[in-house]
Amino acid sequence: MSSQSNEPAVSAQEDIWQPNSQKSVSLELNPDAYYGLAGQFVEEAVRESEASPAAVLLTFLARFGCEVFNPKTLCPYYEIGDTKHYPRLFVAICGQTAKARKGTSAKPVERLFDFPDTLFTSSIQVSPGPLSSGEGLIYAVRDKRKELDPVSGEMKVIDNGAMDKRLFVLDEELAGALTVTKKEGNTLSSVLRGFWDNGSARPMTKTNRISSTSAHVCIVAHITKGELETHLQNVELLNGFANRFLWALVHRSKLVSIPKAIPIDILEKFQTMLADRLRFGQQCQNLMFADETKELWNTIYPWLSRDKVGMVGAVTDRAEPQTARLALIYALLDKKKMIEPVHLKSALAVWAYCEASAKALFSGRGIYQLDDKILSFLESESLTLTQINSKLGRNIKSQEIKSALQRLIDANIVQFKIENSGGRPTTIFSVTKFNLTK
To answer: How far apart are CA 194 and CA 419, in angstroms?
Structure first.
């Protein structure tokens, strides 16, 4: 084993973008996530409702990201290298049970974006799903199609295509999508990947050769924890598109026997502010990081890009672009042409919550379950090999434990140091910490 840094760089301010608890299944968002108009709206939406604040927030961010995109100019966006990232989010809201009030969280957002015609005109497509086939998604945002007329020899338009290639899907039955993707020949997984990556999809089918380019598809899908666990054996299925989703484990915020909707006068005020931000955002082009934001990004980048093991790693390995997209949305909501540190901190708070949710949902799954078990021990305290073996019940071969530790060390998730106390040297393992306050 090759040694890592002997002293972990621990900082009290690390909690700025950590959720309040990664071990509890009742996760809470860091207050930074409720910055600006998004937070103000969530506060009103859940004031007299059982809806989960996290679910309302993520639904709002995804819907705004879809609406603010200008299909004529293909703006706004944030550019990382040669890749343009648009305000395009896929969100998977997972409730502990059917009583997590996942559906309740969508209602206030639906009302908010139902603008009076005199305030804001939108041609965005909104669909309740279900996410059943890739071809169905493509058809909704399809390109214009031309074919050669055998008589005249000229190319003629046979399908004018979608008038607006923005599509917001609110699917309350994600379990159905996970089921259909198991069927041979189903293209949903590959189409979703294409739409998230670059807005394009072209299924390799012999008939009905539709395609879509420069589409802007945003998704919020709901599932219960029990339904998700039913499909967890499909590792390849989940690895196919799960890392394009922001996973949010939510719970009912409180008991309200007689919930009340947002009063109409308050809703109208939010609609006026929101319409103003949408008009602003649709005129923006390439938003860049402010200088202070670049410094913050350089600081937290090692934390975002760190390796993670098992299925948790598989579903969270797009941390950097997911965070950048969230920061872009927060900046547009703030009517800024630069992404400022406050926007990135808000995005980090959301990402940390989603990563913690993924950990709660997927940890211990897949082929490296032993790695996850050892990591869970080390998150609480530093341990020797003997202590780890003891916590595992002394029924795991020493070489298997060493192999798991080596994988964690190679991924820079775990570090070790050797202590000499006069006798035999002792190797102590601990979780690698990242100093986020340099």
So the answer is: 50
- The whole-angstrom separation of Cα 24 and Cα 241 is 26
d(CA 167, CA 201): 14
Neighbours of 122 (CB within 10 A): 16
- pLDDT confidence of residue 103: 64
Alpha carbon distance 382, 370 (integer Å): 17
Mean pLDDT of all residues belonging to the chain: 83
CA separation for the pair 409, 388 (Å, rounded)? 15
DSSP state, residue 422: S
Sign (positive or negative) of CA dihedral 259, 169, 284, 32: positive
- Determine how β-strand 83-85 pairs with β-strand 145-148: unpaired
How is 33-101 classified by DSSP, letter by letter? Answer: GG-HHHHHHHHHHHTTS---HHHHHHHHHHHHHHHT-BTTTTB-BEEETTEEE-S--EEEEEESSGGG-
Residue 267's CB: how many other CB atoms inside 10 A? 18
Give the C-alpha separation, 87 to 85, whole Å.
7
Question: Is 13 in a helix, a strand, or coil?
Answer: helix
User: Can you read off the two tokens belonging to residue 203?
Assistant: 């299924």
Q: Give first-to-last CA distance, the chain, whole Å.
A: 28
Total count of residues recorded for the chain: 438
**What whole-number distance in Å separates Cα of residue 177 and Cα of residue 194?**
16
pLDDT digits (tens, 9 = 90+) for 299-354: 999 989 887 777 788 888 899 999 999 999 999 999 999 999 999 999 999 999 99
Q: Evaluate if residue 361 carries a pLDDT over 80.
A: yes
The DSSP result for 347-393, as a single string, is HHHHHHHHHHHHHHHHTT-SS-HHHHHHHHHHTTS-EEHHHHHHHTT
**Concatenated DSSP letters of 102-118:** HHHHHHHHHHHT---TT
Higher pLDDT, 435 or 198: 198
Give the H/E segment covering residue 247. strand 245-250
The model's pTM: 0.83
Share of the chain above pLDDT 90, in %: 44
Contact at 8 Å (CB) between 343 and 334? yes
